[in-house]
Amino acid sequence: MQSSDSINYQFFTDGIRSQLWVTPGKRVLVACSGGLDSVFLLHLLYQIPELTLGV
Question: How many domains are there within the chain?
Answer without folding.
Answer: 1
